[in-house]
Please model this.
Amino acid sequence: MENFVHQQLAARVVFGQGSFETLAAEVALLGASRALVLTTPEQADLGKSAVQLLGKLSAGLYTGARMHVPVATATEAHALAMQVKADCLIAVGGGSTTGLAKAMALQAKLPIVAVPTTYAGSEVTPLYGITQAGEKVTGKDARVLPKTVIYDINLSLSLPLDASVASGVNAIAHAAESLYARLVSPVTSLMAEEGIRAIVNGLRKLIGNPRDVDARSHCQYGAWLCGVVLGTTEMGLHHKLCHTLGGLFGLPHAQMHTVILPHALAYNAPAAPAAMARIARALGAGPDPAAALPALRDFLYTVNADVALADLGMKERDLDRAAAAATAKPYPNPRPFDAGSVRKLLDNAYFGRFAGQ
Ligand code: NAD
Model:
C-alpha cells in the first residue's frame, strides 16, 4: 500500500426518517439552551417547525439566508445571535443556510447543528465561503464544522426533482474528485465509491417517484459520504473551475457542477485510472476505467441532468475570460493544465458535447 495521512473529521450524525424530532435532545446534548434557527426565506415554515420542536431551547428564528453568504447577511444574522444571546446555531436547509451558520460560527464561535435538506454536503466539511464586493472568499477552519448533523429523509422529500438531480450530481463531483485528490486515503476512497453508488442508485429510483423514501434515503446517505470526502481531501480542476464560474458569472451552483463534471473527469481520466475504475464500478459499469465516462454520460441522460453551460445562462463570449481566470493561480490536479486546455474543456461544456462525440 502507498503511504497516506488520514484526518478523521469529528461529527455526530443522526440519520433516518423522523430524526428531526430529536432536535431538542441533540441541542441539549451539546449543553446549549438558546438555539437560533437559520433558514432561507423559502424554508421559513420549516424554521418555524424547528422553533416549535426546540420549545424552551429556542432563542429565535432568522430567515434571511441567501446563496453564497453575502457579508451583509452574515453581519445581520450575527447581530441577531448576539442580541438574543444565542449559544448554538441550527442550520435547517441546503448549503446556503449551512454556509451562513458557518460564517457566523467563525466570528461568534458558536456550535452548529445542521439539518440538511439538499445533497450539497456542506454540513460535514470545515470549508466556508463569504461573499464581499462580488468576491467569494473561501477558507478551511475546524471551528465551522457542525458538531451534529441530523439527516431526516422527510425534509428532503419536497426538494424538486431537477434540483435533487443537480444536488445529487454536485455530491458525486465531491466524491469523484476526492478519488484523485491530494490527501486521498484508502478510507476516503471507500467512502467516495460508496457515496457515488448510493447517489446514483437513489437518483435512478427518484426520477420514477420524487417522494420515494427509500430513494431519498440513499441520496442522503450518499450526500453524507460525499460531503465527508470533500471536507477531508483537497479538490482539483473540477471544483476550482466551478468556483471560478460561480464567482464570475453567478451560475447556479449545483447545476454548474452537473454540467462541468463529465468534462473535468474526461480531462483528468488519462492521469487517474484507479479513480476512473472506482467511478465505473460505482456506476455499475464494472472495473474498466474506460467504462466510467460512457456510464456517467448515460446516467446524466437517464436522470435528465443539465448538460450545457449555454442552458445555464453562460455567454459564449465569456469562455476566454473564464479559462484565463480558472488558470490564473496554480493548484493541484492529476493532469497539468493551462488556459488553452481549459478553454477547450469549457467549449465542450458550453455546448454539452461529451468526449468522443
Ligand atoms: P441552496 O442551499 O442554495 O438551496 C437552493 C434553494 O432550494 C433554496 O431556496 C432553498 O431554500 C431551497 N431548498 C433547499 N432544500 C429544499 C427542500 N428540501 N425542499 C424545497 N426547497 C429546498 O442549495 P445548495 O445547492 O444546497 O447549496 C449551494 C451553496 O452551498 C453554494 O453557496 C455552495 O458554494 C455551498 N456549498 C458549500 C459546501 C462547503 O463544503 N462549504 C459544499 C457544497 C455547497
